[in-house]
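Progress report, Aim 2. The chain analyzed during this reporting quarter is listed below.
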Amino acid sequence: MTKRRKTDHLITERNNPRTSHLDECSTLNIIELISEEDKKVAEAVAKAKGNIARAVDLIVDRLGKGGRLFLIGAGTSGRLGVMEAAECPPTFGTHPHMIEGIIAGGKKALWRSIEGAEDSGVDAQKMLAKLKLNKEDVVVGIAASAATPFVEGGLSYAKTRGTGRVLVTCNPVNSSIVDVTISLLVGPEIITGSTRMKAGTATKMVLNMLTTASMVCLGKTYGNLMVEVRPNSQKLKDRAVRIAVQILGIGSRKAESLLVRSNWDIKAAVVMERKKMNYKQAKELLIACKGFLREALK
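Predicted structure tokens for the chain:
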């Protein structure tokens, strides 16, 4: 028989006295209460900025050496990790295996809750073992409670491999199995224990920060422009043209012509125009500058 985990001490499981009369409220009152509680989310994230920055530095160091980033979690946390990972290739041009989301229960858990999947630390270890973790990788465990066995098991296994480890949680903990703990103290939920709400929002904000700041530090942007966007649709091709126009100060027709010649590689197109180089020379310069466009243009 599996030993029952006690969770009554967790902040995220406590009753919120401000919403104890929720079923007696008008529709507008319910929305107002949710809105008021949501205001606490950004404050909680801001208070954790020091450790968020530490986590980014760890991720940048490992990815800069050719490592990978894995975002693991169960339920809402797992779905948020998978969603974050899925957004990186189109936004930053990353390889699909550079940043991956891992959810307890596998892909089918993305669409339907699989009760009990979060209780197996062994499953997480098996999933990560297949990925052949090494010391240049990073595993970010996402668990509002900080005590999800699936996440604990994954992080414990990552430690044995010398892999970088980060924990994103919504309870005050100081885990000995991770390098950085990011505690987002958003308080009790509007619906008691429903961590898809404030905890989920805070977690999504932090995952945005971890990936975005890491990609910026790895040269995936020029200013605030996504110069490694993959233009796989007409909308993204239009965006690529606008980015080239903005950086180079040229007309859209010339920008599109440059992008066609550069295989829709915005960085290469910009270097080709500014440095009067051909595509091969531009790519070689970018490689020499480790992908940083600003450095290549100096």
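Residues 41 and 186 are 6 Å apart (CA to CA). The mean pLDDT is 92. These observations will guide the mutagenesis work planned for the next reporting period.
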